[in-house]
Design brief:
The protein has 174 residues and is an alpha+beta fold. It is 25% helix and 30% strand. It has one domain: Transferase(Phosphotransferase), domain 1, CATH 1.10.510. The chain is built from 4 helices and 10 strands, in the order βββααβββααββββ.
């Protein structure tokens, strides 16, 4: 794997653009510090790899390879997509409120929402069900034809038949 420029950073990993076997790829390199400070770090990382490795859907990010040899070598290789739903909706950068960016047409936004719903339906129909638990615009990528790819399964959980889970609350209770 050839690592090129750093294209992102999360709480547990740095993400690089790279090349592998002639493909443009994104490489998520897990921080060694993550494994030193998180007792469940290996399980957390293995969960993401296992979840992604079993998924084959046109709206779910395609896993191409992985390595788990903590604490110094742990990475995931996926197809490279350079635009997130967040960037598509609000423009690049961190200070959205300082710029006026018009939203894409409603029809295009509805199409993206439908594709996300199809990806979620697919994940929820798996045996066991896959619950993403971190679905947000920065975890949804767009391909070159603007079709979505749901990504970042680090917080995902599996639910067997008949199981239900409450993972948090939203809104206010009066």
């Amino acid at each position: 794997i050839q690592l090129d420029e750093k294209i992102g950073q999360g709480t547990t990993a740095d993400i690089y653009r790279g090349a592998w076997r002639g493909f443009d790829v994104a490489v998520k390199c897990i921080s060694p510090e993550f494994f030193r400070t998180n007792a469940n770090g290996v399980e957390f990382f293995a969960q993401e790899v296992e979840t992604l490795s079993k998924q084959r859907h046109r709206f779910v990010l395609n896993l191409m390879g992985a390595c788990l040899n903590p604490p110094n070598h742990a990475w995931v290789v996926t197809e490279y997509l350079n635009t997130t739903l967040k960037e598509w909706l609000h423009g690049p950068g961190k200070r959205r409120r300082d710029r006026i960016v018009s939203l894409p047409p409603l029809k295009d936004r509805v199409i993206r929402a439908s594709e996300i719903a199809q990806a979620m339906q697919y994940l929820h129909e798996q045996k066991p069900k896959i619950i993403h638990r971190d679905l947000k615009p920065s975890n949804i990528f767009l391909d070159f034809e603007l079709h979505v790819r749901v990504a970042d399964f680090g917080h995902a959980r599996f639910l067997g038949d008949g199981e239900m889970a409450l993972t948090g609350e939203t809104g206010k209770l009066n």
